[in-house]
């Protein structure tokens, strides 16, 4: 798999986890959804890049 595949898969997982944390904390709405979703997606993308780099060693 390429680095882009790792980044995409982890970004989607981060988005789902971020929204799950939001709903688990009892938050709802458009603004919290954007904050938790974007934060999860960015964090997931960064982790995907790091996983790819670690696998290439």
Which helices and strands, and how do they pair?
Layout: H1 3-24, H2 30-56
What's this, in brief?
This protein has 57 residues and is an all-alpha fold. It has one domain.
Plain-language structure description:
This protein has one domain. Helix content is 86%, strand content 0%. It has helices at 3-24, 30-56. The chain is elongated, with a radius of gyration of 13 Å. The longest helix is centred in the C-terminal third of the chain and has 27 residues, at 30-56. Helix 1 (3-24) runs antiparallel to helix 2 (30-56). The model has no long low-confidence stretch (mean pLDDT 95). The chain has two helices and no strands. The protein has 57 residues and is mostly helical. Keywords: Membrane, Transmembrane, Transmembrane helix. The chain crosses the membrane at residues 9-28, 34-53.
The fraction of residues in strands falls at under 5%
Assembly state (oligomeric): single chain
Largest sheet at a glance?
A: none
Instruction: Compute the number of structural domains.
Output: 1
Uncertain residue ranges: none
Structural class: mainly alpha
Q: Distance N terminus to C terminus?
A: 15 Å
Mean pLDDT: 95
